[in-house]
Amino acid sequence: MTVTQVPKPGFIYWASPYPSGTSFRVYGYNPYFGQKNGLYSAASSLADLWASNGTKFYFDNSYLFLKINNPWNSRSNFTRAGAYLWTPDSGYHWMLRITATCASSDGKWCS
Predict the structure, then answer these.
(1) How do strand 95-101 and strand 23-29 relate by DSSP bridges?
(2) Terminus of the chain with fewer CB atoms < 10 Å: N or C?
(3) pTM assigned to the model
(4) Band of the pLDDT at 74, cuts 50, 70, 90?
(5) Average pLDDT over residues 74-80
(6) What is the pLDDT of residue 80?
(7) Contact at 8 Å (CB) between 28 and 82?
(8) How do the residues of the chain divide into helix, strand and coil, expressed in percent and rounded to 5?
(9) What pLDDT score does 53 carry?
(10) Nearest to 58 by CA among 30, 98, 7, 3
(11) Phi/psi at 86 (5° precision)
(12) Who's near 87: CB < 8 A, 6+ residues apart?
């Protein structure tokens, strides 16, 4: 997942279904510079996730929730007729890698 068009200090709230008992490894990285790499930690509750700075995830045994932010600053943007497009430099891509391990794999959501 690439999150380069999330303007600072904004967030995207994201949820995706997974089978009960799934475990996760969520890792943020910049593929070009290898900077700001980090393993996300599990939040204790949905409220804990929403109060976080965007480096946590929460799983309620039905949905994986993320509060996604872009830690990089943009050097430019484009505005026309009230529409705003956040355009970071190509070297400032921030990506998330989500690895899901299911208790029993059906091949649909997990490996």
Answers:
(1) antiparallel
(2) C
(3) 0.73
(4) low
(5) 63
(6) 76
(7) no
(8) 5, 40, 50
(9) 86
(10) 98
(11) -80, 120
(12) 5, 74, 76, 77, 78
